[in-house]
Amino acid sequence: MGIAVGLNLDPDPDVAEAIVVSVLVDVDGVHQRLIVDTGGAQSALAAGELSRKLQSTPARSDAGRGVFGGNRRPDRVVAEMMAIGGLRIARPRFDVEALPGAPSLLGLDVLGEHRLDFLFSAAVLEFDGEGVVDHRRDLVQSSRRHPYVTANWGDIAANAIWDSGASISIVDRAFARRHSGLFRPEGNSSGIDASGVESNIEMVRMAGLTVGGRTFTPTIAGIADIAGIEHAGDPPFDLILGMPVLRQADWALDLADGWWGYRDQTR
Known about the structure:
This protein is mainly beta. It is 7% helix and 45% strand. The chain has helices spanning 49-53, 108-111, 173-178, 243-246; strands at residues 3-6, 8-11, 19-27, 30-36, 44-46, 55-56, 75-78, 81-84, 87-90, 93-97, 105-106, 115-119, 124-127, 137-138, 140-141, 147-153, 156-162, 169-172, 183-192, 198-206, 209-211, 214-216, 219-224, 239-241, 251-254, 259-262.
């Protein structure tokens, strides 16, 4: 039987339809709210009292490039124990996010070891559950376990990162130009990527799409230069599929065994 924890689905007051998904965890006895980030390779803590108390440890690699161009080698700390509901993780490591506004994250270093059932309709995240799915589809993953799905608009297809940490979807600028009929301009907004870099971002209304045979309604999205930010040898992508799309279904992703499916069977 799996371990179920509550999900917080918090709307962004500045961007219509944007949703931030987080869970409450305990790190060495201190409660922390972490964004559940299947688009982030490494868990992270915002710089503060807790991060200063934890033991420093070498960072084996940089944190990667953010959507808006952030690229740095972070400080890294290690705790004795992290509890996520009934799930216990010994000696968890965290990058320390020093830039103002940078979030605390639960990344793929933890999430990638489990089957994850995102039951958005019930605001629940289940670790290592056994719920029935409609069909087990092969899950393409990057070298750091980022999960990929294929988004379709009729005959047009895009490799997409399934990113619970993305409060909106992000479309590659060149892809949007090639398929301009799918994206209706909706002004501009400011955004902060996973590295804490802020940028003014072009907003669009993305046409309804399908993933694995399931239809999703039109949603808000942003435009950015994301083609080529993947690590060498990883699959390229033109879309970061974010929460306005993802929350329209209940999903199961087994990153350890390499498959995904839909948990909700009623639509």
